Amino acid sequence: MSGFYGRYEVTMDGKLRILLPARLKKQLPEGEDALILNWGDDGCINLFTQTDWNKEVEKIRQIDEDESEEKRRFKRHIIGGAYPMELDSAGRISIPKYLSQHAGIVKDIMLNCNDNRIEIWDLDRFNKFFEGFGHAEYTQKKAEFLSKKPTATA
Q1: Does residue 1 lie within any of the structural domains?
Q2: Are the CB atoms for 24 and 8 separated by under 8 Å?
Q3: C-alpha distances in angstroms, 91 versus 14, 20, 22, 46, 81?
């Protein structure tokens, strides 16, 4: 898969459903009808295709539960929090209450594409998260994070 790109503002209805914009639906790989919602970092919800969720699960399986209660708790939380679903006939997804509460979503939503997942944010939370991240900081971080470091040759 080539990944998801873009940002889309949508509204959640009273039944905790959101309509995926047509431009975003076109980015879903053909034949990938199964989707997984789960906890996201920084107070958002992650939406994965089944294929990309399976890759996440492989990473999670590497956690040795026998090492600590903390690792068992984390693994239970992330695997148990996964919510399998499909788009309904109108192209909507339903967000379970526990995930909408986690993300603080009331009504207005930002769908922020982040390569192998779509992040579902409460619009106000999203705007606060990026508050102050303007052109100057973007330019600085781009240079810092994307600059190629010379590799040593033997």
Answers
A1: no
A2: yes
A3: 16, 6, 8, 18, 23
Cα–Cα dist 154/16, whole Å: 58
Are the C-beta atoms of residues 18 and 118 closer than 8 Å to each other? no
Q: How many domains does the chain have?
A: 1
CATH of the domain at 109: 3.40.1550.20
The percent of residues above 70 in pLDDT, for the chain, comes to 95
Residue 66 lies in a domain: yes
88 is a domain residue: yes
Amino acid at 41: D
Name the pLDDT band for 83 (thresholds 50, 70, 90): very high
Spell out the residues 6+ positions from residue 63 whose beta carbon is closer than 8 angstroms to its own: 71, 74, 75
